[in-house]
Task: inverse folding
């Protein structure tokens, strides 16, 4: 699951929990899922350094991302 | 000794004369701007353009060689007032003075406008300008591709803005020429590369500001089609101008400057983190409230239950008492207690009527404090009026 999908699911969970037609059991299941997604999303945000690189096409359809030292 | 052409014997050939005239003309005039009205325009199969420029009293044959037509945004319209830059010369085969045009402009940017509208109409016809085609940008891009000049200020701006907003994002530079005759092909190749690679989440295509000519590659139809066909969402970022380029119409998002494009592409990390945290807090709070509500409901229910069962017991008890009281009143013992007697036959059955007793019959009288055995002496049965209950 991508970060965006995680985030979307989290938003769904939050709005479901705000509704009243949920049983306690359903709410707790959602809560558990939400906490798991939250962890994944936060870990993703804490990701290390990004880099600046150059896209190089070696042969038709073969790509390489080469570090840009310029 | 006479000059060439000074006598019939020294007559020049036509080629000699026209060549001499050509050299003299070309030597006398450096490349210059001229102005006039276009007439008899023909775009020849071989790619060259032929037409005349004229005014009220004179006209001049003009040619644009096919390689030079690429520098001119669009062919001029018949009757259009234009300024042309070129070299005056002689076309020997026709013995004609001819102006060779390298660049051309129309009044009020007419040619640029014309080319722009023509390209726009072609894209419109294919539905490429439909706002419904526009894709949403990813909310959390990890890799941003940038199609631009590797040496331009635009790239520098984009990199610094992205790194300031979220240092965790990868920036993949896809170099392209952004001005000059090679720019359209170079841009198309770079955009197609990004599209085939399909490894970035979003691509910024752009350059810093410049003159109309400098930016022209971003009005090229092929560039526009490459942007429209790109496999990932696109952001156009051309110049610092208010003017739109064709690329702006086709891209999923139009940014006014390269820096603005970087801002559109990459959300601020701190805001993302805050957003995720807020979501987490929301979920936590909602769940806690739900658990609290459930506890509350449970307590309320058990209280209700206790009250209700107490009430039930109470209700039954009062009913039992009521019944007991009624029984009490109906019981013959109560009657006896008040001093009455009940006649019983020998089997102990009640004898409520005198008609049931025959003279000489033995019977008993049940009284409050004992029983009397007796024999009937005489029985007088009264005509029954109305039997009255004991109570």
Result:
């Amino acid at each position: 699951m991508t970060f965006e999908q995680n985030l979307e699911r989290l938003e769904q969970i939050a709005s479901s929990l705000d509704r009243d037609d949920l049983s306690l059991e359903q709410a707790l299941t959602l809560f558990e899922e939400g906490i798991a997604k939250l962890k994944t999303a936060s870990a993703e945000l804490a990701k290390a350094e990004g880099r600046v690189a150059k896209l190089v096409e070696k042969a038709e359809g073969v790509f390489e991302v080469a570090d840009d030292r310029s | 000794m006479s000059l060439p052409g000074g006598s019939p014997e020294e007559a020049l050939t036509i080629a000699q004369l026209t060549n001499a005239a050509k050299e003299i003309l070309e030597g006398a005039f450096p490349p210059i701007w001229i102005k006039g009205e276009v007439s008899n325009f023909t775009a020849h199969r071989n790619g060259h353009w032929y037409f005349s420029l004229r005014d009220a009293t004179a006209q001049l044959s003009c040619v644009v060689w096919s390689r030079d037509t690429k520098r001119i945004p669009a062919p001029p319209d018949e009757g259009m007032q234009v300024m042309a830059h070129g070299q005056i010369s002689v076309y020997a085969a026709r013995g004609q003075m001819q102006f060779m045009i390298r660049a051309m402009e129309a009044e009020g940017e007419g040619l640029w406008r014309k080319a722009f509208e023509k390209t726009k109409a072609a894209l419109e016809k294919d539905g490429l300008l439909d706002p419904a085609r526009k894709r949403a940008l990813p909310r959390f891009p990890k890799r941003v591709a940038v199609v631009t000049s590797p040496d331009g200020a635009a790239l520098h701006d984009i990199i610094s803005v992205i790194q300031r907003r979220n240092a965790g994002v990868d920036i993949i530079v896809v170099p392209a020429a952004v001005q000059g005759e090679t720019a359209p092909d170079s841009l198309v190749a770079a955009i197609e590369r990004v599209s085939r690679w399909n490894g970035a989440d979003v691509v910024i295509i752009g350059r810093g500001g410049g003159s109309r000519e400098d930016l022209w590659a971003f009005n090229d139809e092929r560039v526009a089609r490459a942007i429209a066909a790109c496999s990932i969402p696109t952001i156009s970022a051309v110049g610092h101008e208010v003017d739109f380029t064709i690329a702006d119409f086709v891209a999923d998002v139009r940014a006014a400057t390269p820096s603005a494009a970087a801002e559109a592409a990459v959300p601020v990390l701190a805001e993302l983190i805050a957003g995720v945290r807020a979501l987490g807090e929301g979920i936590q709070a909602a769940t806690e409230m739900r658990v609290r509500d459930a506890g509350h409901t449970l307590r309320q229910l058990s209280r209700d239950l206790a009250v209700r069962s107490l009430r039930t017991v109470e209700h039954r008890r009062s009913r039992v008492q009521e019944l007991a009281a009624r029984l009490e009143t109906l019981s013959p013992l109560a009657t006896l207690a008040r001093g009455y007697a009940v006649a019983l036959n020998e089997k102990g059955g009640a004898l409520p009527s005198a008609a049931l007793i025959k003279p000489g019959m033995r019977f008993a009288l049940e009284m409050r404090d004992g029983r009397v055995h007796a024999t009937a002496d005489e029985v007088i049965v009264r005509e029954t009026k109305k039997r009255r209950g004991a109570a």
Observations:
- Chain B is about 40% helix and 20% strand.
- Chain B has four domains: 8-114, 140-267, 271-328, 333-375.
- The CA atoms of residues 76 and 111 of chain B lie 7 Å apart.
